[in-house]
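Go through this:
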Amino acid sequence: MKQQWFNEARFGMFVHFGLYSAAARHEWVQNYERLTDAEYRPYFDHFDPDRFDARSLARRAKDTGMGYVVLTTKHHDGFALWDSALTDFTSMTACGRDLVREYVDALREEGVKVGLYHSVIDWHHPDFTVDWNHPRRDDENAHELNVGRDMARYRDFLHGQVRELLTDYGEIDYLFFDFTYPESKDGWDGKGPVDWDAQTLLALCRELQPGMLVNDRLGIPADFVTPEQYQPTSPIVKDGVALTWEACQTLNGSWGYHRDNTDQKSPTLLVQMLADSVSMDGNMLLNVGPDGRGAIAPRDAKVLDELGEWMRLHRDAIIGAGHAPFAPPREGVYTMRGDRLYLHLFSWPMGFVHLPQLAGRVAYARLLNDGSWLKTSVIDPDQQADLMTPAGEEEGTLTVHLPIRRPDVLIPVVELTLVDD
């Protein structure tokens, strides 16, 4: 299956970088502040990503345990990070660099899968009609701005830019389109699959890159679904069929660099989210927003360093792992890879953790961080609680004996080698 690498990788890096990075106040700054093209233009005129180092970015992703990276080739503001022949609103015009080329080459050198993000929205294009997401929606007589605009011409432009990305940069592994919003709001129509000619656009992707995975945000089914900024609570199933999915998450609630947003998720929470995703057969795509010069902010680099250290010790519990057919204890979640069952302990119990259904099914137990052996036992279900004697556990429960002191890692993991059936 073409998504085998995706299911194996489990962990990827999202990179939001563009003109909004220099604005440093959210990637939707043009929308939020209702900026005109003229008001937004200074970020183009002064775009200088002198610290955007694609090789360093690729190595950073690899060192963090990520198997793929997804770069914003163009966000909603329409600014292209490659040398597009269809517009001069590009990084090549602004600073003389094709950042997509640098990025793709660097990922291939590091053996990391290549992902591209591409917005089907373009607030800069003169034929893209004003709607309820457009920065000009609150202008006086705003509806009159659509006179003369032609979405058919915009569709040709959209398809043409996608064709450039999928023919000029070699093999692409993954394409993240963003996004469809067909509902009406505030007196404006939204945009949906008809506006993008989604079927034709997806067919173009299949023709040019038959091995590439495509997400679901054209508004039609594709290869995987993309819950954003929340964590599913069970494997995602539709009409009885398990779906391939990826949770898209930020470090601080902003995708693009936001200098003053310090609402940073802790490394511990992020590892919990990653393990939780894998436990439900999902991936996690974790975003970084390089600053206006193209560098990863120190606060983000620190978090990635801690995630990378945890992955170095616990990668087997994530990469190539997935959902386990056992009910986990209240203290955490399971992931499973082959004959190894991994218990991610979100809370550290005192002395023991009790595992339903696993009595007689585990040959060996150890802490994954240091490989240290853990004693296991089965407590008589009929045992009566007394002053210093706990009550028995349910039939079939395996008890794992734990040290009182919690291992000094973000999330301790118990590796259980299962007995051959």
